[in-house]
Fold CSC1/OSCA1-like cytosolic domain-containing protein.
Amino acid sequence: SSIRLFAVVAVVGVGVLMPINFMGDQLRLIDFTDLPSKSVDVLSISNVLDGSNKLWLHFSAVYIITGVACYLLYYEYRYISGKRLEYFMTSKPLPQYFTVLVRAIPITDGGSVSDAVDKFFKEYHSSTYLSHTVVHQTGKLRRLLNETEIMWTKLKNLKYVPQRPSTDNPPKKFLGLFGRNNPIGKYQKRLEDLEENVRMEQSDATRRREIPAAFVSFKSRYASANAIYIRQSDNPTEWQTEHAPDPHDVYWPSFSTSFMERWISKFVVFVASVLLIIVFLLVVGFIQGLTYMEQLEAWLPFLRN
């Protein structure tokens, strides 16, 4: 759309406005000895007389370009929206399309997060509510999975390294000092131990401490969208809903943060961004000021000579 808008601006500017400006009389007395520096002014609006009716052509050109820009934005938005709808209608439905991430779940004394979620959504979304999954504190499981992934990567890289052919069995290590080491076997044994620990931790994960966050699934995309964009509680710090992330984009440590911690983090990021922009503008302004000889002479007096 930017290329189309630029083409329209070029046609209107070069084909209409420049000839009108050139036929103006404001700069009739031109010093042809200094024509290279004056020729651009002849083609600009400076050559149109004050109060001339030709100025309405400039105003009309602005309105035309604005209208074309609005139409191109509307056309591009409609085209992209159609593509998105076509993708959603033809693609295979994914669980995150029907799921909502709920944070800051209030818990009553003696109750659990799962009971609170089930009671709340059965009461207010009884016709569309399907199921829910509560987030548990599984820091140990995440560490085991990360370590398993690292070990599997090391083992995969070792298998692709060409081994030196040998007909004899490598001598075993004596007292841990002499002989050859077998890293593949060591990593395979370590990987098997990690997989066993992961299975044990997964079987025990549902008994870990619950975090006040849950993934709530609905029967339709429309129901999940309503749950996201409609406030669920009079208290804005409770029952906060947002889009469920893709399974590969979930950052589990963020679920244990409170509402105030997330708000403070966003505020700190906003302040840091503003300060960065201000510092950048100050530096750019200072450097641009150095391009003027008058400023250089004022700051560096020895340049006057």
